[in-house]
Design brief:
InterPro entries: Patched_domain-protein, PTHD_SSD, SSD. It is found in: Cell membrane. Belongs to the patched family. Keywords: Cell membrane, Glycoprotein, Membrane, Transmembrane, Transmembrane helix. It comes from Holothuria leucospilota (Black long sea cucumber). It is elongated, with a radius of gyration of 36 Å. Strands 14, 15, 16, 17 and 18 form a 5-stranded antiparallel beta sheet that branches. By secondary structure, it is of the alpha+beta class. A hairpin with a 4-residue loop joins strand 12 and strand 13. The two termini are 50 Å apart.
Length: 929
């Protein structure tokens, strides 16, 4: 392979020197690593939590935000002349209540309406006190209409009916539908009831029944003092409703801070799950590192692997808190990722340690362990970091923050693995060398020197040479280093040529293998590489690929707001109920005319009529009857009053002096802006959208409206906006942004693999393997009911890191072996080296996230689902698909040159020296014990 191994060889040699240095100075390195952890962790005192849902889950640079700034400057909400259809904030200050009948019947019957009026009275009568102890009521905070708080049109109509007909228990109220004419004071308005009645059955233009009724209490959010009081009043109402349960009704409610508060609550509620995860992982790590030998078992070292990941989490969070980076609910998933990555590195290092010569010095073993394992974990750490860097450029702040936290944590995890954990490994190596018990560190006898069965079962362990004396034919392996890249070992019966990475690890004569490592080499690998098994594996992969592609084609997009709150919580129930009863029609769209126009001119009026028709021609438009345009009503008003409007002066005079003062058209005062000279500087009209069944309909409607605004037939300067666009825009950017991040991460991962894996074909294979795992995760994610949204996008990005871990380790182990060894044997050795660490990593991660399935949070459950898919498919690729492919492509060549040495005949003096050496060693061990 020529020059392909220059970086890998340099890095491998450097880590070998570092491992030997660390073995000589473990206390210094341990002190430095713990000092860094303590200094950085102190930053947690400055952590800031950010939970603004609109900012977190919508693109921070977007057209919707620009349009929002335009409408805020031109048509701000006037709370003294308040119309709900003119709201421009996604999270307008509001207490929103939806009531349904407990028996599932209509809410328009007398007994239900009595309780609905009672609910309204309890809400309106709720009071708070301000800083000066002044009592503040709803009427002090509400949006005003004609001098009083805006009314609910359904309740207003029912009140009028009661005044004229009286009330009886068997009355079923009939309300005009879909709109009703209401007179409040001297003002008569037409109210559309779509937002107030749900699941309506209509008969003869009147409601026959309605299964749900909506009560909206709109509050002021400007100035800031009023916004704060409105928030306090919302909290007071929520507290009142929490303990209130009407006899006939189900009541669900929502406040403007509900989603943000739900996120904060979930971040706190996740702490017990995180604690449970640490306990579960420590128990698993300890159990998986136990052997029948009480000296070679490593329970404390396994526990320190989890602690090492914990130090990385604390250091990352503290450092970013020092830097002023806010924490959020999505970033709370980061610890579960880092624990999984950290344990993967831990098991790789433990596996490499087990393959070192147990009779070499701790310094030598640490050097050889680092030489093999450090390059492998460097590859995966680099690719993990790059994957999260790709996510950190996302336009969604929630994704960006999560990737920033996780990417930094990956670096710190790598740091603590090669410092803190490696130091503990040095101490463990010295404990093994002195034949001490893995738990109590007291010296123990080897198993074959045990005096009792109890001692042999619970205490004994370590190396013994008694078997050598009883079996002189047992082969003894000698290793001769020829240069920096090759070595030769031989026994009395044969000779082999091995790379230096594995030569020192070839002495298994006096080493106790972990049972799982032996299983992968002697049972699993031969079965897997059998021709029939490989054929079955290929067929299985084809089925996997077909299902994955099908799932990708059926993937749904979009984040449902109810998923931002815990399942079963009031906020979650509210969004569920709202989606069930009030989704039949889409929002009203404000179409803003942002330039000066000659509205009095007949040609201009014709152009504007064509513009209105242009928007009404959309397949998403509800119909002409639901369009609100002041100019159309003004022209009708002029005809009705028999007025003469022939020029600019009379047009403006009638418009301002008569039309806008008419009680029927007061709402249009919020739709027209006049400059200092009385000219119309800007105006707007509203069009209503029809039923939007899916997320795709919502995003397509937004794109269609924007296209009509940008390419209107008259070339007018037009912008469109509704608060829903803030959410809909996420649906548009999520898929291309996900594909962009995946492409960047895969390309960067290919570069890293080409740099650190000394075989370009294998580096490409790693990349293709990761792409295959990603496809499977996305496809099966869809079949598991998970949509593509900001949450799942984060998990797909982190999948790259885990996918690399599974494939890179096996490929690196395979390619660094002697290319002249049969491919089946190389596969067996790779599975022997890394099969058990990969299994440990996958199982430990799945156990770690299993606690998340007890959570009621969509975010954490989605995280758990996707991580389980990654582990299952990653393990399937790393332990089944990839080994079979490597076996079939067994013609790979490494850059390690073959060095053949003729059989060496052991000289007589060497034989005498060997026998005397072992006798002296056995004597020393017996004396020490």
């Amino acid at each position: 392979m020529g020059n392909f191994d220059c970086v890998e060889k340099w890095l491998s040699h450097g880590f070998q020197l570092y491992g030997r240095f660390l073995a000589r100075h473990p206390f210094i390195v341990l002190f430095l690593s713990l000092s860094v952890a303590a200094a950085l962790s102190s930053g947690l005192f400055f952590v800031q939590f950010y939970s603004d849902t609109e900012d977190l889950f919508t693109p921070d640079v977007s057209r919707a935000r620009e349009e929002k700034l335009t409408i805020q400057s031109l048509f701000p909400v006037n709370f003294d002349n308040f119309y709900a259809t003119r709201i421009i904030e996604m999270y307008q200050r509001i207490v929103w209540i939806i009531v349904t009948a407990k028996d599932g019947g209509s809410v328009l019957r007398e007994d239900a309406m009595n309780e609905i009026f009672h609910v309204r009275e309890k809400v309106i009568s709720t009071t708070i006190t301000d800083a000066s102890d002044t009592v503040v009521t709803f009427s002090d905070l509400c949006g005003m209409f004609n001098g009083s708080c805006a009314v609910n049109p359904v309740l207003h109509w029912v009140s009028l009916v009661r005044q004229y007909t009286g009330a009886g228990s068997d009355i079923e109220f009939k309300v005009p539908y879909p709109s009703v004419e209401l007179t409040v004071g001297e003002i008569t308005q037409t109210a559309v009831l779509d937002s107030f009645l749900g699941d309506v059955e209509v008969e003869g233009g009147y409601t026959k029944s309605a299964k749900a009724l909506s009560l909206m209490f709109f509050l002021r959010h400007e100035p800031s003092e009023m916004n704060e009081l409105s928030g306090q009043w919302e909290d007071a109402v929520a507290e009142m409703l929490e303990g209130y349960e009407p006899k006939e009704l189900n009541v669900v409610y929502y406040t403007s801070d509900a989603v943000d508060e739900a996120q904060q609550k979930m971040t706190i509620d996740i702490l017990p799950y995180f604690s449970a995860t640490f306990v579960i992982l420590i128990m698993f790590a300890v159990a998986s590192c136990m052997m029948k030998d009480w000296v070679l078992s490593k329970p404390w070292l396994a526990s320190c692997g989890v602690v090492s990941a914990g130090l990385a989490i604390l250091s990352c969070s503290g450092l970013l808190s020092y830097c002023g980076v806010p924490f959020n609910q999505v970033a709370a998933s980061m610890p579960f990722v880092i624990v999984g990555i950290g344990l993967d590195d831990t098991f790789i290092m433990l596996g490499a340690w087990r393959r070192t010569n147990p009779h070499s010095s701790v310094e030598t073993r640490m050097g050889e362990m680092f030489k093999e394992a450090a390059v492998s974990i460097t590859i995966t750490s680099c690719t993990d970091f790059i994957a999260f860097c790709a996510g950190a450029i996302s336009p969604l702040p929630a994704v960006r923050t999560f990737c920033l936290y996780t990417g930094v944590a990956v670096i710190w995890d790598f740091f603590y693995q090669i410092t803190f954990f490696a130091c503990i490994m040095v101490f463990t190596g010295h404990r093994e060398a002195s034949n001490r018990h893995c738990y109590f560190c007291c010296k123990v006898l080897p198993r074959d020197n045990s005096q009792s069965v109890f001692y042999k079962i619970f205490c004994a362990g370590g190396s013994s040479r008694v078997e050598l004396q009883q079996n002189p034919s047992c082969p003894v392996v000698h290793t001769y280093h020829l240069d920096h890249t090759h070595s030769v070992d031989y026994t009395s019966s044969s000779h082999h040529t091995l790379p230096v990475d594995h030569a020192l690890m070839a002495d298994h004569s006096f080493q106790v293998d972990h049972a799982c490592m032996a299983f992968f080499k002697h049972q699993f690998a031969p079965v897997l590489t059998h021709p029939l098994s490989m054929g079955l594996v290929i067929m299985t992969y084809i089925v996997y690929a077909v299902i994955a592609v099908y799932g990708c084609c059926t993937l749904q997009e979009g984040l449902d707001l109810k998923n931002l709150a815990e399942e079963g919580s009031m906020t979650n129930l509210f969004f569920d109920t709202n989606a069930k009863y009030f989704v039949q029609y889409g929002p009203q769209i404000s179409v803003m005319l942002t330039e000066y126009l000659d509205y009095w001119d007949g040609d201009t009026q014709a152009k504007l009529e064509q513009l209105v028709q242009h928007f009404e021609d959309s397949s998403y438009n509800r119909g002409h009857n639901f369009t609100e345009f002041w100019l159309s009503d003004f022209k009708d008003f002029v005809v009705e009053k028999n007025l003469s409007v022939t020029n600019k002066m009379t047009f403006l005079k009638v418009l301002q002096g008569s039309f806008l003062e008419d009680p029927r058209f007061l709402r249009y005062q919020e739709d027209i802006n006049f400059d200092g000279w009385g000219d119309i500087s800007s105006s707007r009209f509203l069009v209503a959208t029809g039923q939007l069944v899916s997320v795709q309909d919502q995003s397509n409607m937004m794109l269609d409206m924007r296209h009509r605004a940008d390419f209107n037939p008259e070339g007018l300067s037009v912008q469109v906006f509704t608060p829903n666009f803030i959410v809909f825009e996420q649906f548009v950017v999520i898929l291309p942004n996900t594909l962009q991040n995946l492409a960047i991460a895969l390309f960067a991962m290919l570069i890293v693999s080409l740099t650190l894996i000394p075989n370009p074909l294998v580096a490409l294979l790693v990349t293709l393997c990761v792409a295959s795992i990603e496809s499977g995760v996305v496809g099966f994610m869809s079949l598991w009911g998970v949509s593509l949204d900001g949450i799942s996008m984060i998990n797909i990005i982190l999948c790259i890191g885990f996918s690399v871990d599974f494939s890179a380790h096996i490929c690196y182990s395979f390619v660094t072996q002697n290319s002249q060894i049969p491919s089946k044997q190389r596969t067996a050795e790779s599975l022997y080296s890394l099969g058990f660490p990969i299994l440990q990593s996958a199982v430990s991660t799945m156990l770690g996230v299993s606690a998340l399935f007890a959570s009621r949070s969509y975010i954490f459950i989605t995280f758990g689902k996707i991580l389980v898919l990654v582990m299952v498919f990653g393990m399937l690729h790393g332990l089944v698909f990839l080994p079979v492919l490597l076996t079939l492509l067994g013609q790979f060549h490494t850059n390690r040159k073959q060095v053949q040495i003729p059989p060496v005949v052991e000289r007589e003096e060497e034989k005498v020296f060997r026998e005397s050496f072992f006798k002296e060693l056995i004597s020393m061990r017996e004396t020490n014990v």
